[in-house]
Amino acid sequence: MRTLVVLAIAIAALFGTIVAGTQFSKATLVPKLALDLEGGTQIILTPVLDTGATVSDTTITEAIRIMRQRVDSSGVSEAQITSQGGRNIVVGIPGKPDQATLDLVRKSAQMRFRAVLGVAAPDAKSTTATPSASATATAKPSAGATPTAKPSAVATPTAAPTTQSTDLPAKPTSASDPAYLTPGLMAVFDGLDCTKPENRRGGGADDPARPLVACDPTGTQKFLLGPVELEGKDLSSADSGLKMGPNGVVTNEWVVNLQFTGAGAKKFGAITTRMKPATPPFNQFGIVLDGLVISAPAVNEPITNGQAEISGGNITRTSAATLANQLSFGALPLTFSVQSEEQISATLGAEQLQRGLLAGLIGLVLVVIYSMLQYRTLGLVTVASLVIAGTITYGLITLLSWTQGYRLSLPGVAGIIVSIGITADSFIVFFERVRDELREGRTLLAAIEQGWERARRTILAADGVNFLAAVVLYFLGVGGVRGFAYTLGLTTIVDLVVVFTFTQPVLRLLARTPFFAEGHKFSGLDPNQLVSAGARYRGRGQVARPALAGAAPQVADDGPRLTIAERRAAAARAQAAADGNDAADAGSASSKGSDN
Amino acid sequence: MAAGFAQWGNDLYSGKRSYNIVGHRNRWFLFSGALVALAVTFLLARGLNSGIEFRGGSQFLVSNVSNTSQQIATDAVIGVERAAVPLVSLVGGNSVRVQAGDLTADQVTAVRSALASGYGVATSDVTSTFIGPSWGADVTQKALRGLVIFLVLVAIVMTLYFRDWRMAVAALVALGHDLILTVGVYAAVGFEVTPAGVIGLLTILGYSIYDTVVVFDKVRENTAGVADQKRHTYAELANLALNQTLVRSINTSVVALLPVAAILFIGSFLLGAGTLRDIALALFVGMIAGTFSSIFIATPLQVALRARERGIAEHTTAVLQRRVAADVAVTASGVPAAITVSAAPLHAGGHLGTAAQPKRKKRRSPGNPKR
């Protein structure tokens, strides 16, 4: 009884949360639907390339793979990502994507660590033309190797405006060597105007072997940086969180925590060891993301444990999460620009979905009819349990679509339909075990007790396996597989909750009512229907025997199977027969002991 | 009907009526082997018709349409290629996007003109491009890796739970059987394989193992003390477990199949919800196969494996010898011995625990130990 109250309170709390969510937040009373059922936004991305350059299939496939991982890790929204015409990438996202989602698929997130060689105010020092890169780039014919240094980069409006010089110093001793500061590079540096927004757009296709001049994203400073010393591939993981203060106090500032691989940690240790004694700005290293310096911390002490954090600037909770997500799955091999962004409708028409749901409903009615036929009134318990399970599942899905961005797709709906079978099976296993116990001649209460004990084990084992499947597929799958696994895991847990906190207590309560306890014909637990096969102990020393034709006392005739009681009874009977006393066998418990 | 069914269930439980499934296991192995061979033949001969999501295909964009009905596009594509399952969606306000897999160059031209005439626009308003798979090789690869890890984990978990690796092996064999049959039916029917169908296949995976675990749990329960008695062999007890769970298996599969069957037959054939049919088909076939295999494949196979075990083999021989001896003895006394495996054959009764004992109405207060 108490569990039922707890369950009712829990369900009320679940829906209360959702209703409160609709009032105070952007929750909805119905679960959000995925791309195939609701439609969404179609974004066509075109790689930013130099004229004449081509992109290979493998590059596009790689880009799609990384985009999919990024999208998947941000929720269970089941985006659809395809290539189009061999070079464009089409991303379908349910609903209307926000800026963070767009960044997730579009930004290449090429992260590089470069030593800082110079810092200056953001505006251009001289009045020479801003894109002076073209002027210096032509100084050496080797410019062809670095695409961004080519003059054509200026012609493409979307190309990264950050610049590199190609004249290399004689022999730099380290990446921080001031020898990198060649006149050509200084000219580029002086020419860069970071106050202009078009110079702060970032690009990311810079040559790692050469120095770079770059802006910070807000346009407050510009940097002169040495060659790349650490790359995104040296990272093993990245996550976002609140910055820990000096005394282990959590501050209000969002940071991205980086964890380097073994090799990366070694390199990072070497860099920080080298930089520590240097004078400013040579003791700073710049974290360059897509051609922009997002952070340029000074080294206070060598960091050898392979952990670093990106902080400061304008990092918010969302941007920290987005950046960590981007860094975790590596950089896109290309930079993309959005070619078009349009609303698309569901690929499955609303009509089709309605027909499918109608058919599912007919199936459910059939389930109700069948369980009533099979279990009589007990079938109502099944139906009520299914209704409760459905209610909880609906509530959870709605809740998760609000908090986790979960979206219900067609495979998800299929998973729920199948879960009807698995949920109903728990009840069937339970009822059948109770019936088995009744067949053994137990009273209803004892049968429920014993039957539940056995059924519980089976239900736990079987549901455990299902849950295992859900967990493994969720963590290892991508796209639709994840959505399916999510639904499967959810319904499995709901099944357990309902069977433990609803079906079982309800059956116990019902067992106290005369209708069930006396085994009414329509209760589904009528002992007389269940024990026709053998004798049933009725209590108080009485044995009920089925009214079979020729219900002569079954004298055990298969020698080796006689029990002691049977042997004694047989002996007594033989004795009685010998004595000529026919009344001896009345009331004696001479049932076939091995039959119950 | 239900009363008769209940009576049948009673008889199965008590052992009065029994289907000797384990005893005739070779027959069932042969039967399933033939089915699997048939499925593989279909698979090899006809192959799978994988959808646009796996292979990529053609995409048509019809611009400047006034009537945005999706049905027109579906009809236009199906008019050219019957087996196609076109994905139609509206883009922006006045364009229709149609995706269809695997069209030849001629078919592409035909679809273009069909779309143009269907929507009443110029052929130049219908553009076509090639699109890549949205369910790429990397998705499949990840799903497969997940699958392999899942199967290994399931094998470990089942071995630990049942304390017997043979049950895990038998369950996995049954699972493989179900998956092959389902895929074979796909190949035979020629439905396009979509991601939804693959998800259906994964669902089958969960269902098949679930069903097998339920049956095995009864087998475990019945055979728990097999070595402590000399009446029945392991195989007989396992067979009794099968018979005793038969009613459960039938009820469960009917309840699980009813909604799926409704979607498959009412939904796709009568109402025309075409996109649901592939997942419904996968579920329908797979669930039947799953129920069948847990009874007719998994348990008999598990018994066959256990029968080779030394302890079990010795026990079986001992039981049979004892039975022969008893038979001779009984026959000598003129009464034939009936060998039926009856319900709860091993333990006539169990202790129900202290909870089953009569309760004392009033308890001495716990603070007052007896003086």
Fold topology:
The complex is a heterodimer of chains A (596) and B (371).
Chain A (H helix, E strand, L loop, with lengths): L1 H23 L10 H4 L1 E8 L9 H17 L6 E5 L3 E7 L4 H8 L4 E10 L12 H5 L14 H4 L27 H9 L20 E4 L6 E10 L3 E10 L5 E11 L1 H14 L9 E5 L2 E4 L11 E4 L6 H12 L7 E9 L5 H26 L1 H27 L6 H30 L4 H33 L3 H33 L1 H4 L9 H4 L5 E4 L2 E3 L19 H16 L17
Antiparallel strand pairs in A: 1-3, 1-12, 2-3, 4-6, 4-9, 5-6, 7-8, 8-11, 9-10, 13-14
Helix pairs in contact in A: 1-11, 1-14, 3-4, 4-9, 10-11, 11-12, 11-14, 12-13, 12-14, 13-14
Chain B lengths: L1 H13 L10 H22 L2 E2 L1 H4 L1 E6 L7 H11 L6 E5 L3 E7 L3 H15 L6 E6 L5 H26 L2 H25 L2 E2 L1 H28 L11 H38 L5 H31 L2 H23 L39
Parallel strand pairs in B: 1-6
Antiparallel strand pairs in B: 2-4, 2-5, 3-4
Helix pairs in contact in B: 1-9, 2-7, 2-10, 4-5, 6-7, 7-8, 7-10, 8-9, 8-10, 9-10
User: What share of residues are in beta strands of chain B?
Assistant: 5-15%
Shape of chain B: elongated
CATH class category label of the largest domain in chain A? Alpha Beta
The number of distinct structural domains of chain B comes to 2
Describe it.
The complex is a heterodimer of chains A (596) and B (371). In chain A, 45% of the residues lie in helices and 16% in strands. Chain A folds into three domains: 2-17 and 348-517, Multidrug efflux transporter AcrB transmembrane domain (Multidrug efflux transporter AcrB transmembrane fold); 40-106 and 332-343, 2-Layer Sandwich (Alpha-Beta Plaits), CATH 3.30.70.3400; 108-313, Gyrase A, domain 2 (2-Layer Sandwich). Chain A is α+β, with helices and mostly antiparallel strands and 596 residues long. In chain A, helix 1 (2-24) packs parallel to helix 11 (377-403), helix 10 packs antiparallel against helix 11 and helix 11 packs antiparallel against helix 12. Chain A has a five-stranded antiparallel beta sheet with strand order 5-6-4-9-10. In chain A, strands 2-3-1-12 form a four-stranded antiparallel beta sheet. Chain A has helices at residues 2-24, 35-38, 57-73, 99-106, 133-137, 152-155, 183-191, 262-275, 317-328, 350-375, 377-403, 410-439, 444-476, 480-512, 514-517, 527-530, 564-579; strands at 40-47, 80-84, 88-94, 111-120, 212-215, 222-231, 235-244, 250-260, 285-289, 292-295, 307-310, 336-344, 536-539, 542-544. The longest helix of chain A is centred in the last third of the chain and has 33 residues, at 444-476. In chain A, strand 7 (235-244) and strand 8 form a beta hairpin. Residues 126-162, 546-560 and 582-596 of chain A have low confidence and may be disordered. With 371 residues, chain B is an alpha+beta fold. Chain B folds into two domains: 21-49 and 136-313, Multidrug efflux transporter AcrB transmembrane domain (Multidrug efflux transporter AcrB transmembrane fold, Up-down Bundle); 57-131, Alpha-Beta Plaits. Helix content of chain B is 64%, strand content 8%. Chain B contains eleven helices and six strands. Chain B has helices at residues 2-14, 25-46, 52-55, 70-80, 105-119, 137-162, 165-189, 195-222, 234-271, 277-307, 310-332; strands at 49-50, 57-62, 87-91, 95-101, 126-131, 192-193. In chain B, the strands form two sheets. Chain B has a four-stranded antiparallel beta sheet with strand order 3-4-2-5. The longest helix of chain B is centred in the C-terminal third of the chain and has 38 residues, at 234-271. The relative contact order of chain B is 0.12. Mean pLDDT of chain B is 79; it is low at 334-339 and 343-347. Classes of the chains: A alpha+beta (596), B alpha+beta (371). At the A-B interface, helix 3, strand 2, strand 12, helix 10 and helix 12 of A face helix 1, strand 3, strand 5, helix 6 and helix 8 of B.
